[in-house]
Design brief:
heterodimer, A: mainly alpha, 75% helix, B: 319 residues, alpha/beta, six-stranded mixed beta sheet, four-stranded antiparallel beta sheet
């Protein structure tokens, strides 16, 4: 009986997370801030880096994939919760029999799906327009999936402070996301970066996703693949756990 | 605190519930029970602690101390289980503005795990009952305030709750929407739904509530049926008289034994007393002695608004 009720409870919570995912897809994926910060941002960033420089496609494409994944997966979280708070729908969600953890899981899944979908675009463009070739497809898929989950959890964590407007949270999220971009081997492989950057790189989850994606395109991996997956798993767990705590702490603030 | 002891099944049990925000105690150790199948009115002035109480009971904020049970589930220890039994219609309609009426309804039903066939059938029935069927595909942002509130009620009812929390459901609504919402609430209550209603509308509370609690400065000042509360405030009882042609001198009316004070409003005289029956008799005698004639004579209980003012203006606000 107890076993059945536990399964039933888990099923209800999982269903709740999937309902939140569906709601976010229909409501937020096409919102202009999501498209600006999640899609246009990485494109213009990379163009700014690439224009006038002679960089091999084997270097450009994996960097573009990693950057698209970084910006898109982490774009949903910082927008959804402030929007919901502003519209007072957050109050409605937290009074349903769906736990806060399940609501946040739904938000993480929203970033995950968005990140995976957007990062497929540079992969396909790379195959069609350049001679960059995928040498290890399972590693690429694994890197994108693990990276999307991790970056999406970071986005949900960044959305936890109570803010009346999404723009305040986007400012905070860019303060975190932009510096990490430059020390994670996106534009320049970590092995070629200055020594100080090499010390900071392991602290960024983006470094591990970037290393996996580069390795899938045939580059010599800076970190072994197993370590990358392990670190992305640890980062995801820690970021999600902290975000659940912070969201619980700030649950009713500003309502 | 006055509470009628009724041996009924309680669906909400609140025990010393307290909520502080920094140095401010918004809700200060309140106790009450809501019985199955009643409409329980929760009245109080702005800032009295009504919404904070609803927010604690519905799991939006945690109590600082004390406890509350909904259908025997502790709101803190079994928060999710307690929320499975309830639905909330807040004062401000917080629908998803970019979703259609139908999608808003289905979203809420899906979050509560209502099976597909049931949510579709029930959703259509509710839209029809609340006059929203022709707006099924309209975006929520296109709805007027009254229609948004109707949608909120639909979205709450599609989850098939056992307890419905209504926070100022008819505040600022047009007459049609307010009447329709009251009618639906009454019908649902007749079918067994328990309703927890906060309102500023004393006529509404007196009209539809089985019992009311008056909260003031975070404390419960009184709980009972509207009729009993009106009887209890004895000093607000009065005898209302209208005289034909000539009226008696005011000092004669004030000298009737048992009359606390006399108020006149054009040709209507109100004699406030704790003993309206005997004052009415003495008034008839006085009228005959003075050779006057009465056109109307009534004994009146105070309105619920009088009771509310009595308890919230320092005369009954203590715990």
């Amino acid at each position: 009986m107890s076993g059945y009720s536990d399964v039933n409870r888990w099923h209800k919570q999982l269903n709740g997370s999937l309902v939140i995912l569906k709601k976010n897809i229909f409501l937020y994926y096409m919102k202009s801030p999501v498209l600006i910060f999640g899609v246009l941002f990485p494109v213009f960033f990379f163009l700014a880096f690439k224009m006038g420089r002679d960089i091999s496609p084997g270097n450009v494409v994996p960097g573009m994939v990693a950057m698209a994944l970084w910006f898109s997966a982490s774009a949903i979280g910082p927008l959804v919760t402030p929007w919901e708070r502003g519209a007072k729908t957050w109050e409605r969600l937290i009074s349903t029999p769906i736990s806060l953890r399940s609501i946040l899981t739904g938000d993480v899944l929203s970033g995950f799906v968005f990140g995976c979908a957007i990062s497929v675009i540079p992969v396909v463009l790379g195959l069609l327009l350049t001679d960059a070739r995928i040498m290890n497809l399972p590693l690429l898929i694994g890197g994108i999936l693990a990276g999307a989950l991790c970056f999406s959890s970071l986005g949900v964590l960044l959305s936890s402070p109570p803010a009346a407007s999404p723009s305040n949270i986007m400012l905070l999220s860019n303060l975190v996301r932009l510096p990490l971009l430059f020390v994670s081997g996106i534009f320049v492989p970590i092995a070629q970066m200055p020594a100080w950057a090499g010390w900071i790189a392991p602290l960024s989850p983006l470094s591990y996703a970037s290393a996996l994606i580069r390795a899938s395109y045939g580059s010599v991996p800076y970190f072994p693949a197993w370590l990358c997956f392990l670190m992305l798993f640890i980062f995801t767990s820690v970021l999600f756990t902290i975000s659940c705590r912070f969201h619980r702490m700030y649950r009713a603030k500003g309502l | 605190m006055i509470e009628k002891s009724v041996k009924m099944e309680s669906v909400i049990k609140v025990n010393s519930l307290t909520r502080r925000f920094g140095n401010l105690t918004a809700v200060d150790g309140i106790d009450f029970q809501v019985n199955k199948g009643e409409i329980f009115g929760f009245l109080g002035p702005n800032g009295a602690g009504k919404t904070t109480t609803i927010r604690m009971l519905t799991g939006i904020i945690d109590p600082t101390s004390g406890s509350a049970m909904i259908q025997d589930h502790d709101i803190r220890k079994e928060s999710i289980l307690s929320r499975e039994h309830i639905a909330v219609v807040p004062e401000q309609a917080n629908v998803y503005l970019d979703f259609s009426v139908w999608r808003n309804l289905m979203l809420m039903a899906e979050l509560y795990g209502v099976p597909r066939n049931r949510r579709i059938n029930e959703g259509e029935r509710l839209l029809d009952a609340l006059g929203l069927m022709n707006k099924k595909d309209s975006k929520a942002r296109e709805l007027s305030k009254g229609f948004k509130q109707r949608l909120m009620l639909c979205a709450a009812l599609v989850t098939d709750p056992e307890v419905l929390f209504l926070d100022e459901p008819t505040s600022g609504l047009d007459v049609h929407s307010a009447r329709l919402i009251r009618k639906i609430v009454r019908e649902l209550n007749n079918d067994g739904l328990t309703v927890f209603l906060t309102t500023h509308n004393m006529i509404e509370a007196g009209d539809i509530c089985s019992r009311v609690a008056i909260i003031n400065n975070g404390r419960i000042a009184a709980i009972d049926t509207p009729g009993n509360l009106r009887s209890m405030v004895r000093k607000r009882h009065y005898v209302e008289a209208v005289f034909k042609e000539q009226v008696p001198p005011l000092n004669k009316l004030e000298s009737i034994p048992g009359v606390a004070r006399v108020e006149s409003d054009q040709d209507i005289f109100r004699l406030y007393t704790e003993t309206p029956g005997s004052v009415a008799t003495l008034l008839v005698v006085l009228t005959l002695d003075l050779g006057l004639e009465l056109e109307q004579l009534n004994t009146r209980k105070p309105s619920l608004e009088d009771v509310f003012l009595y308890y919230t203006t320092g005369k009954g606000g203590s715990k």
